[in-house]
Write a structure and sequence with these properties.
The complex is a heterodimer of chains A (914) and B (278).
Chain A (H helix, E strand, L loop, with lengths): L5 E7 L2 E7 L5 H8 L18 E4 L2 E4 L12 E3 L12 H9 L8 H14 L5 H8 L10 H8 L25 H6 L14 E7 L5 E5 L3 H6 L3 E5 L26 E2 L5 E7 L1 H6 L7 E5 L6 H5 L14 E9 L2 H6 L3 E8 L3 E2 L7 E7 L2 E6 L4 H12 L6 E5 L15 H11 L3 E4 L2 H7 L2 E2 L2 E9 L5 E13 L5 H11 L8 E10 L13 H19 L3 H8 L19 H24 L4 E13 L9 E8 L4 E5 L8 H13 L6 E5 L16 H24 L6 E5 L2 E6 L2 E6 L10 E9 L18 E13 L4 E12 L6 H20 L24 E7 L16 H4 L1 H13 L10 H13 L1
Parallel strand pairs in A: 1-5, 6-18, 16-17, 21-22, 25-26, 32-33
Antiparallel strand pairs in A: 1-2, 3-4, 3-5, 6-10, 7-9, 7-11, 8-10, 12-22, 13-20, 14-19, 15-16, 15-18, 20-21, 23-31, 24-25, 24-30, 27-28, 28-29, 31-32
Helix pairs in contact in A: 2-5, 3-4, 11-12, 15-16, 15-22, 16-17, 18-19, 20-22
Chain B lengths: L3 E2 L4 H10 L3 E3 L18 E3 L10 E2 L3 E5 L4 H6 L7 H9 L3 H6 L2 H7 L6 H7 L3 E6 L2 E6 H4 E3 L2 E2 L6 E8 L5 E8 L10 E9 L5 E9 L6 E2 L1 H7 L30 H19 L2
Parallel strand pairs in B: 1-3, 2-3
Antiparallel strand pairs in B: 4-5, 5-10, 6-7, 6-10, 8-9, 11-12, 12-13, 13-14
Classes of the chains: A alpha+beta (914), B alpha+beta (278).
Chain lengths: 914, 278
């Protein structure tokens, strides 16, 4: 029973409105579902994330916490009310110009919080901005560009519009940026057909259990609006999916047995009100709870039950890189350092929970949902529905953050099955606890590592073993197991290496892809050992790293000769003066401070761009239409990192037209070619190359038509092209040409697959075509009595090959650093305990310090205009730099992250007592 | 089942409660988070249209903070240094969105062990005004909060206001919150303190309370006793002893270990005393 509807009249964006709704409904819900103002986003429905911030009588509130009844007679302003007569206001313009929106899901909330502040205080201080925006979480930007934008509102922002040939390297605002600041962008939950049914999964409250589903007739009788209850037997095709062809071990709906809490066991489909009214307890499920295998030790214990029959020892996969004789090298080393390090489950915490809808169109199924990997989704859904891949169309919505978490299927199999069977569109929006309980996490790792060096500080050997808790299903566990051994010695020349890994099944949440695929965990270990060795041989930590850094001509542990774009020493050179100044300043501060100590740490990283020793091609197409418009058909999904802009910049310069002349069609598997996954920091390097080749291909075709030389200038006009080459000027009438595809008369195509080789049993070979390098400095202040750590500053030097768009590169660095800071200091997902954004902590606007970015451009000859990747590299050095800084400040080395206040304080007390 | 009342008078509200129990909603900042993904089908009494519950007043012998006063309104209110601790807590409850909607009385009624308001209300020796159709009664906050999310409110009662008595002597309050991030953080430990200074310049009364270290926030009488008669000086922080924490019973949870909570409480108490005695 629900309360009857009431009439609520209020002012919405300066216009009177009236709704007839149940009084208890959330304002956010009424704005979105009834008034179709989907600019107000829902990230948690619990007041934890602030994405739904609106102004109520001019003051910021969470629209998810306001009963609509309380809005009677009041005034509500949403993001849609900011622009006037189609013109962005100053705040929106500043956000757009400063790159303050990445994925854009928190942007409406940030804008409204800032609007509240600016209405009272036109020229706020930075501290006032932080306080005012402190209630909105952002997972992409690291907040710094948001702060910059709000502080810059008073000064009019100018945006660049580069001419032909000048797009690469320009600070072009996002090509999809306007929609992100107006609220017009459509994310997974923002679009649905009018006659849509709603689906909600019923999930296991147990970590490990058998279950049976009883007679559903009484449930149907009680709820006439319940159209169907899907169970495992309803899956039309194969009820197993997974990333790797041989490792498909995850059911779309569990078949009588669940391996982790939050696993879907049934799906309720019906009208929205009915689905909201049914409680999980109403569904007749009988559970037989089994002992939980939680954590690596339990899974490896003698006699532990096998969670998957094909893996009797619960070891999903092992990885290995070996070169030289490490035992001998360590025995002969002047200094040896060793340690054991542990990390926790980390939640992606994108502010957009998974959402979308599916509909059946004849003998095809269409899925409109947020995803990082449309083509992989297409192929997996085809298997699950028993269809041919061509019968599946994936239309990605805007993605409100991914970070690897939207590389796995989530709701797609359920909505696709329901829409297929019922022949009605079916929609699903995950709740925050559901998203957190059911989707993948960063692998917790337990790493034991040992490193040695000679008397001059030259590394002699590294031994590394990492056990990674891969949770209930394989997901991307094999990727982690294979990628980590390649990177586990750090970006250094090490003659003898033995790095091994295992991915281990447990009843914990499936661990999958998360920004760095296990490498951030490994970096915590190798960088701690570098600090320890430097101290043992009396070298400065920066100089020790410089001495051992990979450089042009180095041979890696996999035997790969690095021939170009190895900018690590350049990064360290760029940091040296800041390093010395910050170390000295910290030591000076510490001489006069007893209970608060400052410290400065440094860490290096490297990261192979693209898949490990596996083909991962991208194809791009670019068309010229009869009316003289250029369209880039890009299958690369922009999850906020900016590929929609990068691809246009690259294609524009390759073709020789201004970026503003190129329209973009992105993601749709019917309209674009496969550009692979948005993962492994590969889009700029791999898809960017495809975009470059496509642009060059179209350019060649155009120049050939005009019979002009390679340096000719192309001018686009409606219906025609003008080509100028010295004194030669040719006009090409486009309507005379036949249409090749879509509206296009000419289509350029480009494909690129990074050249790699398979790795042998010792991991020898060429796993990646190129690597990103970086070094970061962290400055912290530790309260010795409370164990709290405040990061005061990060200085980040990144070799990106070429910064296609420096604003976006900085944005990636800021965002990666924020996530690295979270990994280091606060983020720890505990299954069943931290399934919300107040028990699971991510950094707020007040936690991310000033960040100095130094971009090193050591050109990668294989890259588009010399570019490599930055998405994952941005994060990896941060946590070890912070841990090094805590060590410098306190003398204690934290070997378990997050370094929460209780752990830091316990380590300080233990050191004092020993 | 599923009714929604939004009366404009307190008398109507308590009349409704006399009929049958309702879930009472004001700012909604605890109500909705407890119902994510669940049906909203309870009987609701929304008290936000009751204007008589809206404004802080000086009643001569005490201040009255009625049920609808939000954290933001408290921060903006003209109140003496006695309230500095409660105001500091108000600025650290959630983000400004929460401060603009959530109420001090709601924080008290929700009775979370980690409620930021309650240790302050204990040090203010606040009383709770409970209204019902059969009259009203007053309870000290310590008697009102009975356990983890348990209070002495009867189903037919409504918390109409909190009363804060005026101290006889000049008084100052403070509040120190410890969390693992800057904003939007649930306290690992928090300490509230009030010191009243006598005409001789010595501490005439001291009240300290600790939150998130027991099912309910607890006063520390032994510490308070140790401070009385002392001359204010930052060195008084040195009086804090582990045995002063006898009323506490902290637990290990995702925010910290019990041992850490005890240790950090000692530090926060020392710092609170140093600040109040400076």
């Amino acid at each position: 029973m629900r309360s009857p509807e009431i009439r609520v009249a209020f002012t919405l964006n300066a216009k009177p409105v009236e709704v007839h709704v149940e009084p208890i409904r959330r304002l956010a819900d009424v704005l979105r579902e009834d008034l179709h103002l989907t600019g107000t986003k829902v990230g948690c429905n619990a007041g934890d994330c602030g994405a739904c911030t609106v102004l109520l009588d001019g003051r910021q509130v969470c629209a998810c916490l306001v009963p609509i009844a309380q809005v009677e007679g009041r005034s509500v302003t949403t993001v849609e009310g900011l622009a006037k007569d189609g013109r962005l206001n100053d705040l929106q313009r500043a956000f757009h110009a400063h790159g303050a929106a990445q994925c854009g899901i928190c942007t409406p909330g940030m804008l409204m919080a800032a609007a509240d502040l600016l209405a009272r205080n036109a020229q706020p201080s930075e501290a006032e901005v932080l306080d005012a925006l402190g209630g909105v979480l952002c997972r992409c930007t690291g907040y710094r560009k948001i702060v910059e934008a709000v502080l810059a509102v008073a000064r009019p922002a100018t945006t660049v519009d580069p001419a032909a040939g000048e797009a690469v390297g320009a600070r072009l605002p996002k090509t999809d940026g306007i929609a992100k600041v107006t609220g017009a962008e459509r994310f997974g939950a923002d679009t649905w057909p009018a006659d849509c049914l709603v689906l909600r999964a019923v999930r296991s409250p147990h970590h490990h259990a058998r279950f049976t589903i009883g007679d559903l007739a009484p449930l149907h009788a009680k709820y006439p609006g319940l159209v169907r209850v899907l169970t495992a037997k309803d899956i039309p095709g194969q009820n197993r999916y997974g990333i790797y062809p041989t490792g498909k071990d995850q059911p779309a709906l569990a078949d009588g047995y669940v391996r982790h809490r939050g696993e879907a066991v049934a799906a309720l489909v019906g009208d929205a009100a009915t689905i909201a009214a049914i409680r999980d307890e109403d569904v007749p499920i009988t559970w037989e709870v089994l002992p939980t295998i939680s954590g690596i030790d339990a899974a490896l214990a003698p006699g532990a039950p096998a969670l998957h029959a094909e893996h009797p020892d619960n070891v999903l996969i092992s990885g290995r890189v070996a070169r030289g004789d490490t035992a001998c090298a360590l025995a002969q080393s002047a200094a040896v350092a060793e340690g054991t390090f542990e990390t926790s489950f980390v939640e992606h915490a994108y502010i957009e929970p998974e959402a979308g809808y599916a509909r059946r169109v004849g003998d095809r199924i269409e899925i409109v949902a947020c995803t990082q990997t449309p083509y992989m989704d297409r192929d997996e859904i085809a298997l699950i529905l028993g269809l041919k891949p061509e019968q599946v169309r994936i239309i990605p919505t805007a993605v409100g953050g991914g970070f690897g978490g939207k590389l796995d299927l989530s709701l797609q199999p359920l909505i696709a099955t329901a829409a297929w069977l019922l022949d009605r569109p079916v929609r699903c929006v995950y709740t925050r606890p559901e998203s957190m309980a059911s989707t993948t996490k960063r692998h917790p790792a337990r790493i034991t590592a040992r490193a040695g060096c000679d008397g001059e500080g030259r590394l002699t050997a590294v031994e590394f073993h990492g056990d990674y808790n891969t949770g209930a299903y394989a997901s991307w566990g094999p990727t982690v197991a294979n990628r980590v051994p390649v990177h586990a010695m750090g970006p250094y020349e090490v003659p003898a290496v033995r790095c091994t890994t295992r991915a281990i099944y447990t009843n914990d949440p499936p661990a999958g892809a998360f920004r760095g695929f296990g490498v951030p965990q490994a970096a915590i270990a190798h960088e701690a050992l570098m600090d320890a060795l430097a101290a043992k041989v009396g070298l400065d930590p920066l100089e020790f790293r410089w001495k051992n850094a990979l450089h042009k001509g180095s041979v890696t542990a996999t035997g790969q000769h690095l021939e170009a774009s190895v900018g690590l020493r350049a990064c360290l050179d760029a940091l040296r003066s800041r390093w010395k100044a910050l170390r000295e300043a910290a030591e000076a501060f510490n001489r006069t401070s007893a209970n608060r100590k400052r410290g400065v740490g440094i860490a290096c990283m490297w990261y192979g761009i693209g898949n490990t020793s596996m083909s991962n091609p991208s194809t791009m197409r670019i068309g010229l239409s009869r009316d003289g418009r250029v369209t880039l058909y890009s299958g690369a999904v922009d999850i906020g990192q900016g590929s929609n802009t990068i691809m246009v910049q690259i294609a524009a310069d390759a073709l020789g037209v201004p970026a503003s002349a190129i329209a973009l069609v992105a993601g749709d598997t019917d309209l674009t070619a496969d550009a692979g996954k948005t993962s492994a920091s590969r889009q700029t390097f791999v898809s960017g190359n495809a975009a470059r080749l496509a642009g060059e291909d179209l350019r060649r075709q155009i120049l050939r038509l005009g019979n002009v030389g390679p340096g000719a200038r192309i001018e686009l006009e409606p219906g025609r092209l003008t080509l100028s080459d010295g004194d030669v000027r040719r006009v090409i009438e486009l309507d005379a040409l036949p249409v090749v595809s879509n509206q296009d008369v000419l289509v350029g195509t480009g494909s690129f697959d990074p050249p790699t080789t398979a790795l042998d049993e010792d991991g020898q070979g060429i796993p990646y075509a190129t690597y990103a390098f970086a070094a970061q400095i962290a400055e912290v202040e530790v309260d010795l009595e409370l164990g709290t750590t405040k990061v005061r500053r990060i200085v980040a030097a990144h070799d990106v090959g070429r910064a296609i768009n420096p604003t976006q590169v900085e944005g990636q660095i800021h965002g990666g650093i924020a996530q690295g800071l979270g990994l280091a200091l606060m983020e720890e997902y505990v299954p069943g305990r931290t399934e919300n954004l107040h028990d699971y902590l991510i950094p707020t606007i007040g936690d991310v310090p000033e960040i100095e970015c130094i971009l090193i451009e050591d050109t990668e000859p294989l890259g588009p205009f010399g570019a490599k990747g930055i998405g994952e590299p941005a994060l990896i050095a941060t946590a070890p730099a912070i841990l090094g800084a805590i060590h410098h400040a306190t003398g204690v080395r934290l070997t378990r992250v997050p370094a929460t206040p209780d752990r830091v304080r316990a380590a300080i007390l233990a050191a004092q007592n020993s | 089942m599923g009714s929604y009342l939004r009366p404009t008078r307190l008398s109507e509200a308590v009349a409704a409660l006399a009929g049958r129990p309702h879930v009472i909603v004001a700012g909604g900042t605890d109500f909705y988070p407890a119902r994510v993904g669940r049906p909203l089908d309870e009987d609701i009494l929304d008290i936000t249209a009751i204007d008589e519950l809206r404004r802080i007043s000086d009643e001569g012998s005490h201040w009255r903070i009625p049920a609808l006063v939000t954290w933001s309104e408290l921060v903006a209110a003209d109140l003496p240094p006695l309230f500095d601790g409660l105001k500091r807590a108000a600025r650290e409850v959630g983000g400004i969105q929460i401060q603009n909607a959530g109420t001090i009385c709601g924080n008290l009624c929700n009775a979370s062990p980690a409620a930021d308001g309650i240790p302050n209300l204990l040090t203010l020796e606040a009383e709770v005004e409970l209204a019902s159709a059969s009259g009203s009664r007053r309870l000290p906050v310590a008697g009102f909060v009975q356990g983890n999310r348990r209070t002495a409110r009867k189903p037919d009662e409504l918390v109409a206001a909190i009363r804060v008595p005026k101290p006889a002597r000049p008084a100052r309050g403070t509040f120190l919150k410890l969390g693992a991030r800057t904003y939007l953080v649930i306290s690992i430990v928090m300490v509230a303190g009030v010191i009243e200074t006598g005409p001789d310049g010595r501490i005439a009364a001291a009240r300290f309370a600790v939150g998130a270290c027991a099912p309910t926030a607890r006063r520390l009488p032994a510490l308070e006793q140790a401070l009385i008669g002392e001359k204010p000086s930052p060195a008084l922080g040195g009086l804090v002893r582990p045995e002063h924490l006898a009323p506490l019973s902290p637990i290990d949870d995702v925010r910290g270990t019990a041992a850490y909570r005890r240790d950090a409480t000692l530090t926060l108490l020392r710092r609170a005393i140093q600040e109040l005695a400076a």
